[in-house]
Design a protein that fits this description.
Layout lengths: L1 H17 L11 H23 L5 H38 L5 H4 L48
Helix pairs in contact: 1-3, 2-3
């Protein structure tokens, strides 16, 4: 479930960037932005849900799944992000009419290597704004594991 919605968000933000509606190219640090999103949004939200007790014992499961998804993204996310970028760029190039290659080539057209986080973010405990990459305005819920071994 996590990978599915992650891919949808990436495609949406990528399209917006190509159409001049996005401030930054999501290819630049998708992997690191997702780590930040887990650390400064998803996991703190799951902790608060657990603390307030509104979902009973399910809140503990939500927190466990959020932590596990973050761990899995840390292990597998670089490759997932790389494939997602290549796949999306391939789909875009098939939909885009051919142009003069020499005139259209630019350094930003290259797919950057995905690596770990490239920026430091402040601790959420001090209420300082943190850079969450592509998720600054995106709300997300915490899903439960469906038992398939896939990130949810």
């Amino acid at each position: 479930t996590f990978k599915k919605w992650n891919k949808h968000l990436y495609k949406e933000l990528s399209k917006g960037y190509r159409e001049g509606r996005g401030a930054s190219d999501p290819r630049e640090n998708w992997y690191g932005s997702e780590i930040g999103f887990f650390d400064f949004y998803i996991i703190p939200l799951a902790k608060k849900l657990k603390e307030c007790g509104v979902f009973g014992s399910a809140a503990s499961e939500y927190l466990d799944y959020a932590v596990e998804n973050r761990r899995r993204w840390e292990e597998e996310g670089t490759e997932i992000a790389r494939k997602m970028v290549l796949e999306n760029d391939g789909l875009v190039s098939k939909m885009t009419p051919p142009q003069n290659v020499a005139a259209s080539a630019s350094p930003k057209d290259d797919v950057p290597a995905q690596s770990g986080p490239k920026h430091e973010v402040e601790s959420p405990e001090n209420d300082a704004p943190s850079e969450l990459g592509p998720h600054n305005e995106v709300a997300s819920g915490v899903a439960s594991n469906d038992g398939s071994g896939e990130m949810v």
